[in-house]
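In response to the reviewer comment on reproducibility (Comment 2.3), we provide here a single inverse folding case reported in full, input and output, so that an independent group could reproduce the run without further information from us. The structure tokens appear first.
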């Protein structure tokens, strides 16, 4: 065992109706630094355990792939046991096994996929290699029921920043845009480091920003100028913003002036939330989507949620945000998408299923 947290956590009751002939599906997630194993019965989450190695990466200020792979190896079996115990099932009860086969860290993905193949082979159950990004969208059936389509999804975490158009969660997902440099969460983490805050920095900036003035400093809104809106309509860029914050802070430090940390945090956060929500709402309007879903760790951000609610309400769009535990990486998202594929009659993956660290979002499953 590592210092990882493998203690089973209580699963709050969901409002989703239990599907009549709901398949019992096990989901395994290991694309980054969370080892997640969960079990769903149709749209109902019955077991969900996550072991995170985030504490082991903290002193490096970011995820170290080799450390993540090793932590997955150590956590996989205890996490699987705990999830089955929480769900009150035996492995032989399962109808199918789903696993993240990409995108993600190559070595980390291998651990989950090897575990899933072993289970599928030993239990003689169908195997579904699924797309991590699409699973971030599919997980919301556990909280808010069947997904209305077309729907736009904004995925914002330490590893990804994507705008997706979902016409059918099992077969028709397209990428509208993504970050061309840093992910949104990565920008939070880098700016937090500049301000001498611990990793991961998002929650610290969120908290500090509460006491700051979001209009104190006019930080740039990446890829929103007229020309950029033509070439990069639904793409994002956060590296210019990060550099602008760094310059602002360094100039003041060099002059021996105090840094108004709360104002910097609030102004930086305002720039991120403004661009994310502006482009997400525009994507809904231009693609006839009446619903916007926000997922990923940054979806926990208070200002992002507030601004998204405000702008969606003004545009007549319904906002869906899964509960925070389901926004971050977990096995529930994998099991939920796996169950939706099983219910839609999708073809299972082959037992020699490969991992694909840069799996395109259009490939919902392999
Ligand atoms: O989805 P996640 O748990 O893991 C992956 O990156 O896959 O997302 C982690 C990211 C980190 O960059 C963290 O700083 C950010 O989400 N984050 C936040 C907040 N909580 C977590 N960013 C802004 N505000 C928050 N409240
Ligand atoms: Zn993720």
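Designed residues, in position order:
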């Amino acid at each position: 065992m590592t210092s990882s947290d493998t203690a089973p956590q209580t699963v709050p009751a969901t409002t989703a109706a239990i599907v009549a002939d709901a398949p019992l599906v096990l989901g395994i997630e290991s694309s980054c630094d969370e080892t997640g194993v969960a079990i769903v019965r149709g749209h109902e989450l019955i077991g969900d355990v996550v072991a995170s190695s985030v504490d082991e990466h903290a002193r490096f200020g970011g995820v170290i792939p080799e450390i993540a792979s090793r932590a997955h190896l150590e956590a996989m079996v205890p996490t699987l046991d705990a999830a089955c115990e929480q769900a009150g099932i035996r492995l032989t009860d399962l109808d199918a096994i789903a696993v993240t086969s990409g995108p993600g860290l190559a070595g980390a993905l291998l651990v989950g996929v090897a575990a899933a193949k072993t289970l599928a082979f030993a239990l003689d159950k169908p195997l579904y290699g699924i797309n991590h990004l699409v699973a971030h969208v599919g997980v919301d059936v556990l909280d808010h029921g069947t997904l209305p389509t077309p729907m736009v999804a904004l995925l914002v975490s330490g590893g990804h920043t994507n705008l997706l158009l979902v016409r059918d969660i099992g077969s028709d997902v397209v990428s509208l845009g993504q970050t061309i440099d840093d992910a949104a969460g990565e920008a939070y983490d880098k700016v937090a480091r500049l301000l001498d805050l611990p990793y991961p920095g998002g929650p610290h900036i969120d908290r500090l920003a509460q006491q700051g003035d979001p209009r104190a400093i006019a930080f740039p809104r990446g890829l929103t100028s007229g020309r950029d809106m033509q070439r990069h309509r639904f793409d994002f860029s956060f590296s210019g913003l990060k550099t602008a914050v760094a310059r602002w802070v360094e100039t003041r430090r060099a002059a021996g002036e105090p840094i108004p940390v709360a104002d910097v945090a609030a102004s930086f956060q305002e720039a991120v939330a403004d661009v994310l929500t502006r482009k997400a709402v525009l994507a809904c309007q231009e693609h006839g989507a009446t619903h916007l879903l926000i997922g990923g760790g940054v979806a926990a951000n208070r200002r992002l949620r507030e601004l998204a609610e405000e702008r969606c309400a003004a545009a007549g769009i319904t906002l869906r945000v899964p509960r925070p535990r389901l926004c971050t990486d977990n096995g529930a998202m994998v099991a939920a998408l796996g169950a939706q594929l099983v219910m839609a009659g999708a073809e299972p993956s082959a037992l020699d299923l490969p991992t694909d660290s840069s799996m395109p979002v259009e490939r919902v499953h392999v």
